[in-house]
Amino acid sequence: AGAEQRALSEKLVRLHVVAVSDAEEDQGKELPLFTESFEHLFLSMEFRKEELANEEWRDVVGYEGKYQVSSLGRIKNVDLNKILKISRAGRYEQIGLFAIEKKKQITHLVHRLVAMAFIPNPDNLPQVNHKDEDKTNNRVENLEWCDGFYNQNYGTKNARMLKTRISNKTK
Questions:
Q1: Whole-model pTM above 0.85?
Q2: Could you write out the three-class secondary structure of the chain?
Q3: pLDDT digits (tens, 9 = 90+) for 87-97
Q4: Which listed residue, 70, 101, 102, 158, has the most CB atoms within 10 A of its CB?
């Protein structure tokens, strides 16, 4: 497994994840957040070199000129030219964006920002489906607009739930 993991690592580019310190002695310095012990937490932030070469950036709807979203599901502060750290809310990835006019940070689901920027929605469908059922895969090709019924009944979720119920009844 070690050799396989090293081979996979060679194919992937690890993104530099940073925080800006508030401490006086290192005011404004970037501090790396990534460490080997936390490697499993950042797997969704790894992309193949080919993906990064073809990554497209567009303005986040409602934050034009301030934030951009990429076709891979990354978010960037335009003024600082920095990729922002995405957090997780349950099974979904989210990001807090500062709304100047409201003078507060507003939390957004990343998959919705990607869909609003890249996928036309002529029927004004209310939800975004992850085609591969991986809620952390926010690549544009993995997303589609849909209604609630379609989203709830998509994929293998219902079959997996039924299998779990059946196995629980037989115990």
A1: no
A2: CHHHHHHHHHHEEECCCEEECCCHHHCCCEEECCCHHHHHHHHHHEEEHHHHHCCCEEECCCCCCCEEEECCCCEEECCCCEECCCEEECCEEEEEEEECCCCEEEEEEHHHHHHHHHCCCCCCCCEEEECCCCCCCCCHHHEEEECHHHHHHCCCHHHHHHHHHHHHHCC
A3: 998 899 999 99
A4: 70
Spatial distance between the Cα atoms of 123 and 126, rounded to a whole number of angstroms: 9
Determine the residue type at 12.
L
Take residue 118 and report the two structure tokens written for it. 């890249």
Nearest in space to 28 (alpha carbons), one of 18, 41, 13: 18
- For residues 109-124, one letter each, b for 16 or more C-beta atoms within 10 angstroms of the residue's C-beta and e for the rest, the string is bbbbbbbbbbeeeeee
The token pair at 56 is 């497209």
Which stretches of the chain score pLDDT less than 50?
A: 10-44
Rounded Cα–Cα distance for residues 107 and 162 (Å): 34
Tell me, what's the pLDDT at 111? Answer: 98
Looking at residue 89, its pLDDT comes to 84
Residue 110 has what pLDDT? 98
* Contact indicator for 61, 117 with CB cutoff of 8 Å: yes
